[in-house]
Amino acid sequence: MSEAVETMWKGRFIEAKREGRWEYVGRSRGIRAAVIVAVDDGHVLLVEQYRVPLKAPCIELPAGLIGDETAGEDIADAAARELEEETGYRATAIEELGEFASSPGMVSETFTLVRATGLEKVHDGGGTDEEDIIVHRVRLAEVPAFLERQRALGKKMDVKLLLLLGGGILRD
């Protein structure tokens, strides 16, 4: 039997909630997120942007909110829009890979992971004016070394990058 959910604080994009003794945050207005694995000719597209909560730049897979501007927005449409806005690449196909949670102990948000294929560079990317995104096109075989160099520079790594490191982390 679940307990009543109390909204302790609500902002434009997130809400702090309490359910019994458990406190967590979640997205407001039912907004969801799409995270994009975009591989082009043996390279993966990564983005870098300063993240206020971390007080540091963070290397991430391209991602964005679904329905934050248009209610009822389709996952594939949102992912394609965000990929082009952030990286400057347009995809001919977006395939949904499943729904995942990145920090289920304190955040109710889940994201839909998608694969973008048939990529064509249409502009330099960089996101909106307030995002100031740097685009990295990294050869798949060089991802571990690239991320290690970025960490040495003090940059943070989004947990979703483990998707690209999985095999290397699990060595005996």
Low-pLDDT runs:
none
Number of strands: 13
CATH architecture annotation of the largest domain: Alpha-Beta Complex
Overall pLDDT metric: 91
Largest sheet: number of strands, sense, barrel closure:
8 strands, mixed
Number of helices: 3
Q: Which structural class should the secondary elements be placed in?
A: alpha+beta
How would you summarize the topology of this molecule?
Blueprint: E1 5-10, E2 14-19, E3 22-27, E4 32-40, E5 43-51, E6 56-60, E7 63-66, H1 75-87, E8 89-90, E9 93-100, E10 111-117, E11 120-121, E12 134-139, H2 143-152, E13 156-157, H3 162-169
Parallel strand pairs: 4-10, 6-13
Antiparallel strand pairs: 1-2, 2-3, 4-5, 4-7, 5-6, 5-12, 8-11, 9-10
Q: What would you say about this model in short?
A:
The protein has 3 helices and 13 strands, in the order E-E-E-E-E-E-E-H-E-E-E-E-E-H-E-H. It is α+β, with helices and mostly antiparallel strands and 172 residues long.
Give a description of the structure.
The chain is α+β, with helices and mostly antiparallel strands and 172 residues long. It has 2 domains: 1-30, no CATH class; 31-169, Nucleoside Triphosphate Pyrophosphohydrolase (Alpha-Beta Complex), CATH 3.90.79.10. Strands 4, 5, 6, 7, 9, 10, 12 and 13 form an 8-stranded mixed β-sheet that branches. It has helices spanning 75-87, 143-152, 162-169; strands at residues 5-10, 14-19, 22-27, 32-40, 43-51, 56-60, 63-66, 89-90, 93-100, 111-117, 120-121, 134-139, 156-157. The longest helix is centred in the middle third of the chain and has 13 residues, at 75-87. Helix content is 18%, strand content 42%. It is globular. A hairpin with a 3-residue loop joins strand 1 (5-10) and strand 2.
